[in-house]
């Protein structure tokens, strides 16, 4: 059987050479229309692996639309997002439950063409939300995701569908990690390190680290043990919300 070689490895130097090629081509063609070009993601964070892709912002003047691209150019996977100045600022100001995952793409930007220092200004916008907005997002997310996830875990346990418990544990931990990031106003450098980075943050629910260590160890074959850790985290989430003063339950019908 012939193995598919892609995704293929590239060195940091090869990635930088390709980035500069992309910058040169765009600046040569569109210098008067481009505000800034930056790299985000693992390459910008300095933790790219040999199989990491290249992700780039191309910020244009308002009213100028350049084509965005996402493509495979072996051995590279490249994503180039072209966006107008006012629109990327609007996106950077957005605040929602997945903020801890994507905020870094506006904060940790490797400037490769930025004559006006635009990216230095851009990185303040993801922090423009206030405490009331944060609590509202956390409250709504608790209802939409962790609460429903725990219901599925309990259903699976009650019905003896124990093969779902490890999957449910991973999902519950991911949702709890988003809440931890929101509460601490911290974004994660990469989704693959989200659990480890969340464990280091100061404010988090009881039971979080214990389930995180279990999931990260890969020792999820004992469904009874995994289920107990899920219950412990769920109790911890509710205790944590009480301590934070975030009430997600109502005492009467809202209509």
From TrEMBL:
Residues 116-246 form the Kanamycin nucleotidyltransferase C-terminal domain. One of its GO terms (biological process) is response to antibiotic. It comes from the Bacteria. GO terms for molecular function: nucleotidyltransferase activity. Gene3D superfamilies: Beta Polymerase, domain 2 (3.30.460.10), Nucleotidyltransferases domain 2 (1.20.120.330). CDD domains: NT_KNTase_like. Residues 29-78 form the Polymerase nucleotidyl transferase domain. InterPro entries: KNTase_C, NT_sf, Polymerase_NTP_transf_dom. This is KNTase domain-containing protein. It comes from Pontibacillus chungwhensis BH030062.
């Amino acid at each position: 059987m012939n193995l598919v070689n892609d995704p293929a490895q590239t060195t940091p130097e090869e990635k930088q050479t390709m980035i500069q090629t992309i910058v040169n081509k765009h600046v040569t063609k569109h210098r008067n229309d481009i505000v800034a070009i930056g790299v985000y993601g693992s390459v910008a964070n300095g933790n790219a692996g040999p199989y990491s892709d290249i992700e780039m912002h191309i910020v244009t003047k308002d009213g100028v639309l350049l084509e965005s691209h996402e493509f495979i150019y072996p051995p590279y996977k490249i994503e180039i997002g072209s966006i107008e100045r006012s629109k990327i600022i609007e996106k950077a100001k957005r605040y929602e439950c997945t903020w801890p995952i994507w905020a870094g793409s506006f904060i940790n930007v490797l400037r490769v063409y930025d004559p006006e220092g635009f990216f230095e200004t851009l990185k303040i916008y993801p922090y423009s939300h206030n405490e009331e907005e944060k609590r509202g997002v956390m409250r709504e997310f608790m209802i939409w995701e962790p609460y429903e996830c725990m219901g599925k875990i309990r259903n699976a346990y009650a019905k003896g569908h124990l093969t779902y418990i490890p999957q449910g544990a991973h999902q519950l931990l991911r949702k709890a990690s988003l809440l931890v990031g929101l509460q601490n106003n911290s974004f994660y450098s990469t989704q693959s390190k989200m659990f480890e980075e969340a464990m280091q943050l100061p404010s988090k629910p009881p039971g979080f680290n214990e389930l995180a260590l279990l999931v990260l160890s890969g020792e999820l074959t004992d469904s009874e043990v995994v289920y107990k850790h899920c219950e412990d985290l769920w109790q911890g989430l509710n205790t944590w919300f009480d301590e934070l003063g975030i009430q997600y339950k109502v005492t009467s019908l809202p209509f």
